[in-house]
Amino acid sequence: MILYLVRHGIAVDPTDPKSPPEAERPLTASGVQKTRSAALGLRAMGAKPDVLISSPYVRAAQTAEIFAEALGFAPEKIRVSEALKPAGNPAEILKEISHLKAKEVACFGHAPNLDLIISHLAGARGPFTELKKAGVACFEQSNAHGHWQMRWILTPKVLRQLGE
């Protein structure tokens, strides 16, 4: 299985007095544009996920929808998982993924949870990454015993360049 971990795009600043509650903060106009360009970069790399799973938070769901559109995936088939919330437990989403009969899965979430998932998959003792907004990390499950191998981590800037 190939697993893509995607951090949500640039969202409304939580310190903005007009900002909605945390779970409802949407992507900014610039965030939508940059996320779309990053999604096109992932498409250019040949990604074809059969399953998309998103945090229920608005900014992650919007990011998942943008990637779904770019990757030719029906947005109404995006699954939602509480395990991808910012304070989610990495073991929960990995357990959820392990039950899927999919070749490629894309998960859309937040920091610090995605960085914890990355460190867990890599076998590290703690986080060693800071996935950028609309950045993507890719892992491959190397055998039936559940071992994962990191293939790459790309910044949104590199993804945007690949999509041009």
The SS-based structural class is alpha/beta
SS strand fraction = 15-25%
Report low-confidence residues grouped into runs of 5 or more.
Answer: none
Name of the CATH superfamily: Phosphoglycerate mutase-like
What is the helix/strand order? EHEHEHEHEEH
What oligomeric state do the depicted chains represent? Answer: single chain
How many domains make up the coordinates? 1
Q: Any idea what the shape is?
A: globular
CATH third-level topology: Rossmann fold
What's the arrangement of strands in the largest beta sheet? 3-2-4-1-5-6
Mean pLDDT: 95
> So how many helices?
5
Number of strands: 6
Report how far apart the termini are: 27 Å
Q: What would you say the CATH architecture is?
A: 3-Layer(aba) Sandwich
Q: What percent of the residues sit in helical stretches (DSSP H or I)? A: 25-40%
Major β-sheet annotation: 6 strands, mixed
Rg from C-alpha positions?
15 Å
CATH class reads: Alpha Beta
Describe the model:
The protein is an alpha/beta fold. The protein has one domain (2-163): 3-Layer(aba) Sandwich (Rossmann fold). The longest helix has 16 residues, at 29-44. The radius of gyration is 15 Å and the shape is globular. The protein has helices at 29-44, 58-71, 90-98, 113-122, 156-163; strands spanning 2-7, 51-54, 79-80, 104-109, 136-141, 148-154. Strand 5 and strand 6 form a beta hairpin.
